[in-house]
Amino acid sequence: MSHPTFGAAVSIPAGASAVPRWGVLARWVTWLETRPDDERRPASSWWATYDLVATMTCLLVIVYAEREWFIRTPTLALGVAGVLHRPLARRAAYWFAMAAVLAVGHLFLWDRIDNHKYLMTYWCLALAVSFLTPHPLRTIAVNARLLIGLCFLFAAVWKLASPEFRDGAFFQYALLTDARFRGVADFIGGVSTSLATGNTTAIDSLRRFGGALDAVPLHSSQRIEWMARFMAAWTILVEGAVAVTFLWPEGKGVSKVRDFVLIGFLITTYPITSVVGFGWLLVAMGLAQSTRTFAPVRPLYVLTFLVLPLYSLPLVRLLHRAVE
Amino acid sequence: MDSLTRAKRSTAYYLVPALAAAIAMRQLYLSHAYALTPWKGGGFGMVASVDQPRSRFVRAYLLTPLGTVPVEADAPERVEQLATRIRFMPSPERLNAFADAILDTSWIVDTAPSLRARVAPWRPPAPAAAGPPGGARPVEVSGVHVEVWRIRLDPSGPRLVTRKLTEITRARS
Residue A32's closest chain B neighbor by CA? Predict the structure, then answer.
């Protein structure tokens, strides 16, 4: 398709319009703008990457949109249309329609939906807004980088501000009571499935209406405690690193390694908490903002996109059984 | 559009991220002011706290001539839906709506199968059916007391403990 702004992403020299007027803030704002892509590569190469990003986003919406009919039906239709007819996903109107359905639908469920559903809405809106500009690819890249940076900044701040996260209590609770963590708790923590079931029963008894209990003991182990502390420290470290590297001025310092930090987060986090929808969204956004940091970074994003659904398999439990 | 001004370009760059930041800040406010769970509301506070909706529970007690009776079983669907919303964010408006929904329901005291008194909503008997169990009549309810609790992990032990997040008492007007 011949798009009116085709190739715009390679046509503007770096910092051409940057005239710092507000000191440090203006310089930071200028720095945030993604560098123009490598001029040695043809524009079609960058649009091919965008097409991949658009397809990933459409698949994400098709598979992981909320199940309510007023969201599910229109997003399914739009998503399938975007996959089948690729030029559609290069139009602002298409993404505005998708964003509008998600925004209105999510408004009714605002306090019940997961945070990545918010991010999904922002992302579709960012794609829509970007196609109103003469430099859609660069605008998409800036939006993607800022959205990822802000998402992880808020996530890291929440965790740092939460005493029960910092001292490992959250992960201890999750390891001992959450079915998604059961394999790890069993294999590494030594808390068997039967003990974990006992923990679940303890919670039920605590919640039981009219019950007089105000405290119940949990089956745990020293290894679970250590693991919980390690997981808490690692999560704060890696999420903070993603926030810093994505919000750092483009092309400078730690910004150059941001793609690897994000992929590292995806690969180390989702085997345990397999929220594939969130992972796919981060991959699509990561791919959209990836510049010439490292040659293999884009294939790595694609590989991560393919690998994430496999994490839904009960790998740890299977490994445990094999070891036994 | 080639003559897009710097302001317009900045709008395209920063409008959506600014919206995301504004909603996240709103979530922080609601979380502190109205106990919105950190897991929801677009603030990216998931996995930061045990305080997720499924770790919260609601208790309601009818104020009756028989004493304070827990609302335990077979609550109408609307009451259940409101209770679910309270677990996500127990704001005063939601608590009052939940209390009003309970007060709008007719209740009977149902002691079977256990001896502990509990209540069940009274439904008008179908034309060919018998009345409420044991021929009981709706109990007079003068008010309702609602409590929202959360579960917290005490790492020493470890053990789970409960903590009351908020409560209200609403009299029948």
Answer: B13
What percent of chain A shows pLDDT beyond 70?
80
Residue in chain A closest to B159 (alpha carbons) equals: A217
Using alpha carbons, list the distances in angstroms from residue A14 to A20, A143, A201: 14, 17, 60
- Over the range B143-164, which residues count as b (16 or more CB within 10 Å of their CB) and which as e? bbbbbbbbbbbebeebbbebee
Question: Residues near A215 by Cβ (< 8 Å), separated by ≥ 6?
Answer: A206, B154, B159, B160, B161, B162
Report CB contact under 8 Å: B38, A162.
yes
Six token digits for residue A2: 């011949």
CB A122, CB A147: distance < 8 Å: yes
Q: Which of A129, A134, A214 lies nearest to residue B16, judging by beta carbons?
A: A129
- How many CB pairs below 8 A link A and B? 161
Rounded to two decimals, the pTM is 0.85
Q: How many angstroms away from the CA of A322 is the closest CA of chain B?
A: 30
The predicted-structure confidence for A132-164, as pLDDT tens digits, reads as follows: 998 899 999 999 999 999 999 999 999 999 999
- pLDDT interval class at B27 (50, 70, 90): very high
Residue A31 has what pLDDT? Answer: 55
Give the C-alpha separation, A116 to A61, whole Å.
11
Tokens read off for A143: 């939006």
Q: How many CA atoms lie within 13 A of A4 on its CB side?
A: 8
**A187-208 burial code (b ≥16 CB/10 A, e <16):** bbbebeeebbeebeebbeebbe
The CA radius of gyration of chain B, in Å to the nearest whole number, is: 23
Model confidence pLDDT, tens digit, residues A25-55: 666 666 555 554 445 566 677 788 899 999 9
Q: Model ipTM?
A: 0.84
Cβ pair B147, B87 in contact under 8 A: no
